[in-house]
Amino acid sequence: MHEYSLACEIMDNVVSISESNQAKSVNSITVGVGKLTHVNPDQLMFCLEALVSDNIAQGAEIILNEIYPDMECQCGFSDSGDKFCTRGDEVVDDIRAFLEVPCPECGKMMHASGGRELIIESIDIEQ
């Protein structure tokens, strides 16, 4: 489970940044997780929650934001990837939502741009 090593790196950065800003505690941590990162958000959340139990971030709220890729076509059409997570009555909530997506303008296959981010978006600290 590579989510644990990613969570360790995130927490190392949170603790380092918090300490360098003379924080007394961390109120919340917001992490952006791209839909194309191959990271399981539930596993990442579990690992982060376990890691905040014995450091300056103990008790901090952890918020995971989904980052959707932009879908682009050769014809120039582009739109946010969140609009392509439904196909008929089916909701596709994984990487399959961004594969083999026909362009609504010309019918050619679109490609995903972005959505591969895993970033600390914000750290709310108490000074």
UniProtKB/TrEMBL annotation:
<keyword id="KW-0533">Nickel</keyword>
<keyword id="KW-0479">Metal-binding</keyword>
<feature type="binding site">
    <location>
        <position position="103"/>
    </location>
    <ligand>
        <name>Zn(2+)</name>
    </ligand>
</feature>
<feature type="binding site">
    <location>
        <position position="73"/>
    </location>
    <ligand>
        <name>Zn(2+)</name>
    </ligand>
</feature>
<keyword id="KW-0862">Zinc</keyword>
<feature type="binding site">
    <location>
        <position position="75"/>
    </location>
    <ligand>
        <name>Zn(2+)</name>
    </ligand>
</feature>
<feature type="binding site">
    <location>
        <position position="2"/>
    </location>
    <ligand>
        <name>Ni(2+)</name>
    </ligand>
</feature>
<dbReference type="GO" id="GO:0016151">
    <property type="term" value="F:nickel cation binding"/>
</dbReference>
<dbReference type="InterPro" id="IPR000688">
    <property type="entry name" value="HypA/HybF"/>
</dbReference>
<protein>
    <recommendedName>
        <fullName>Hydrogenase maturation factor HypA</fullName>
    </recommendedName>
</protein>
<dbReference type="GO" id="GO:0051604">
    <property type="term" value="P:protein maturation"/>
</dbReference>
<comment type="similarity">
    <text>Belongs to the HypA/HybF family.</text>
</comment>
<dbReference type="GO" id="GO:0008270">
    <property type="term" value="F:zinc ion binding"/>
</dbReference>
<comment type="function">
    <text>Involved in the maturation of [NiFe] hydrogenases. Required for nickel insertion into the metal center of the hydrogenase.</text>
</comment>
<dbReference type="Pfam" id="PF01155">
    <property type="entry name" value="HypA"/>
</dbReference>
<feature type="binding site">
    <location>
        <position position="106"/>
    </location>
    <ligand>
        <name>Zn(2+)</name>
    </ligand>
</feature>
